[in-house]
Amino acid sequence: EDQVTQSPEALRLQEGESSSLNCSYTVSGLRGLFWYRQDPGKGPEFLFTLYSAGEEKEKERLKATLTKKESFLHITAPKPEDSATYLCAVYGSARQLTFGSGTQLTVLP
Amino acid sequence: DVKVTQSSRYLVKRTGEKVFLECVQDMDHENMFWYRQDPGLGLRLIYFSYDVKMKEKGDIPEGYSVSREKKERFSLILESASTNQTSMYLCASSFARSLAKNIQYFGAGTRLSVL
Questions:
Q1: Residue-wise pLDDT tens digits, A2-32
Q2: Looking at chain B, which terminus has fewer C-beta neighbours within 10 angstroms, N or C?
Q3: Residues of chain B contacting A97 with CB distance shorter than 8 Å
Q4: Does the N-terminal peptide bond of residue A8 adopt cis geometry, omega within 30 degrees of 0?
């Protein structure tokens, strides 16, 4: 059974204070790891897909990395508009995405 | 832009009622999904469909059924709503049969309360 654990559950940062979110996974044959952003009252919005260990993707202040056991979402010099819940999901042995419970990020001005 | 539209943002129903949640996508996607999202549990897959009139159970199908009569529309049905089905329901769609490479696009969600 595929499993995804995200940490921390919640993170409060000051504007400009860089940090990282963690996504640990257990899967039989990783075929893709996805990061989504979800704003309150909205559906998740796709950010990145990573397919193999060592791969990195960047978008504005966000950078996602992947190892054989975990993925990190690095946030550099965050702004208040980066506040959201960040979801990690894996596609492995099952023909479906398995989601973590998310990290709720708050960036204070 | 891909658009996935869920018919209602908020619904309040009584225990035992039959509830229909509708989802429409405008990108000719083959794949459509229904999830529920609960605090601390993340998104859990209820049902999905790879084609018209085709459906497969996800992780938590009990108490739910689905219908896909047209490619663009995927309906979630609660045959007899119960209080433990109070949740946020999210519909998603994606293109291509290789799920490892495609992206799921989500609707805004329907927050259902069963009293």
A1: 899 999 999 999 999 999 999 999 998 888 9
A2: N
A3: 43, 45, 99, 104
A4: yes
Residue A81 reports pLDDT greater than 60 = yes
Please enumerate in sequence order all residues whose Cβ is within 8 A of that of A75, keeping only pairs 6 or more positions apart, or say none.
A13, A18, A19, A20, A21, A61, A62, A82, A105
Nearest CA-CA distance, residue B88 and chain A, Å: 9
Smallest Cβ–Cβ distance between B106 and the set A31, A43, A95 belongs to A43
**In Å, how far from its chain's centre is CA A24?**
10
Out of B44, B101, B107, whose CB is closest to A43? B107
Adjacent-strand bridge partners of A12? A106
pLDDT tens, position by position, B94-113: 986 665 557 899 999 999 99
* Residue A59, burial from CB neighbour count under 10 angstroms (0-12, 13-18, 19+): exposed
* 8 Å CB contact of A31 and B100: yes
Alpha carbon A107 to chain centroid distance? 16
